[in-house]
Design brief:
heterodimer; A: 217 residues; alpha+beta; Glutamine Phosphoribosylpyrophosphate, subunit 1, domain 1; five-stranded antiparallel sheet; 5 helices; 33% strand; B: 255 residues; 38% helix; 24% strand
Chain lengths: 217, 255
């Protein structure tokens, strides 16, 4: 609910948004809508990608103020790249999430952005971490965020199962995003999906006409 | 390999004509004056042993420890100037703590030893400060990466090892360590061998009494670095003393 209130106070361009991440057997799927809005009624972009790659197998979904989110992810990408070269090995997803968390917590007065960090690493496999507005970091089997997420809590709570296959998880994500975009006026456009596994990251765009349709459409 | 570097040995910021930094070499001599410390890596952990010479009967037992805890999964055994070693253990602790604060997980030992080695090296560059007069052995155990052992010396180099020794009897200790098949041993077997090596290299004539400090980190401690429990330590010391007596006996037979 915190997000709904703050949303109207975000100056400039905001990603009134729906983002989600789901663990499945062997990887994670992350997804988002593609609408950027200014205020309640102007769509400043129909096609932005809210899934930011911070390392080979680690992505961040962004929500809140677009400027703040871009600044934080840019900084995190730099820090993570430096860290990974020093360690001489790919970074842990937890390390990426911790970097985001430190940035959000230490600058909480100025920033208004929330993230879902998800990816795959050799140590613990697929993982999802929510980094909330004030800098809270939480590990979850699936996560949803952004203003549109409030409309789909019921759906994801009812339909999520651990250890889904890639097909099941993809369908789950598409359904959840389509439902949220259908009810939230500041979420919309196309659906961006990225599948992250040991093999790498694959980006898929699902245009509006290919999204699942429900009874009222 | 000792030589006097007259004129070129007054500060760490001077090379000698044959390319040596004598201050760093003198620092290593300070380590060689100290009593021995060894660290050995086995199949499922790392064991440290230190020969702690007791200079006075008035000392409280267990004072002036030479094995430190750096983080819950990392241990450090030192030889050389103890005050320098304590200061470096604080540096290592801060590094490990900052890493955990920034990245949310235990610091990998290779990274920690490189960071502390960089710090030690910085003190070999300037004439305003002296190099650290201590070497130390770092050891850790992690479920995924297994046991790790690194040694840092006063020049600021760090190497990974399966077994290493520092201090006055390091040559003799290295010879004994090389006889072990450490890759096939478990920590419980290794503890006894470490105690035995310290007892073997201890010089009864020159140095009188000593206290044995034993610590380990591995699967047996679930990845936490701890002092070896009293009963296991007593068993190890008993084994060490008995092995020494056997060797004495066999020497007599040969005569």
């Amino acid at each position: 609910m915190e997000r709904l209130q703050l949303h109207s106070q975000i100056k400039g361009v905001s990603t009134g948004t729906t983002i989600l991440a789901v663990k499945f057997n062997g990887g994670v799927i992350i997804g988002s809508d593609s609408r950027a809005s200014m205020g309640e009624s102007y769509v400043s972009s129909k096609t932005i990608n809210k899934l930011i790659q911070v390392h080979d197998r680690i992505f961040c979904c962004i929500s809140g103020s677009l400027a703040d989110a871009q600044a934080v992810t840019k900084m995190a990408k730099f820090q993570l790249s430096f860290h990974s070269i020093q360690m001489d090995s790919p970074p842990l997803v937890k390390a990426a999430a911790s970097i985001m968390k430190e940035l959000c917590y230490n600058n909480k007065e100025e920033l208004q952005a929330g993230f879902i960090t998800a990816g795959w690493d050799r140590k613990k496999g697929p993982q999802i971490y929510t980094v909330a507005l004030g800098g809270m970091m939480l590990s979850q089997p699936f996560a949803i965020g952004g203003s549109g997420s409030t409309y789909i809590y019921g759906y994801v709570d009812a339909k999520f199962k651990p250890d889904m296959t890639l097909e099941e998880a993809t369908q789950f994500s598409k359904n959840a995003l389509a439902l949220a975009m259908g009810r939230d006026n500041v979420s919309g456009g196309v659906v961006h999906l990225v599948v992250i596994t040991e093999a790498g990251a694959k980006h898929v765009v699902v245009p509006g006409d290919k999204l699942p349709k429900f009874h009222n459409e | 390999m000792s030589s006097i570097g007259t004129g070129y040995d007054l500060s760490a910021s001077t090379f000698s004509p044959d390319g040596r930094v004598f201050q760093v070499e003198y620092a290593m001599k300070a380590v060689e004056n100290s009593s021995t410390a060894i660290g050995i890596r086995c199949k499922d952990g790392v064991v440290f042993g230190v020969e702690k010479l007791v200079l006075s009967k008035l000392y409280e037992a267990g004072s002036n420890k030479r094995i430190f805890n750096i983080d819950r999964h990392v241990g450090m055994a030192v030889a050389g100037l103890l005050a320098d070693a304590r200061s470096l253990s604080e540096v290592a602790r801060e590094e490990a703590s900052n890493f955990r604060s920034n990245y949310g997980h235990d610091i990998p030992l290779k990274h920690l030893s490189e960071r502390v080695a960089m710090y030690v090296h910085a003190y070999t560059l300037y004439s305003a400060v002296r190099p650290f007069g201590c070497s130390f052995i770092l050891g850790s155990y992690d479920e995924d990466d297994g046991p790790q052992l690194y040694m840092v010396d006063p020049s600021g180099i760090s190497y990974g090892y399966w077994g290493c020794a520092i201090g006055k009897a390091k040559q003799a200790a290295k010879t004994e360590i090389e006889k072990l098949q450490m890759k096939e041993m478990t920590c419980r077997e290794l503890v006894k061998e470490v105690a035995k090596i310290i007892y073997i290299v201890h010089d009864e004539v020159k140095d009188k009494t000593f206290e044995l400090e034993l610590s380990w980190v591995g699967e047996v401690t679930k990845g936490r670095h701890e002092l070896v429990p009293k009963d296991i330590k007593e068993e190890a010391e008993k084994y060490a003393k008995e092995s020494l007596e056997e060797e004495d006996d066999s020497d007599e037979d040969n005569m």
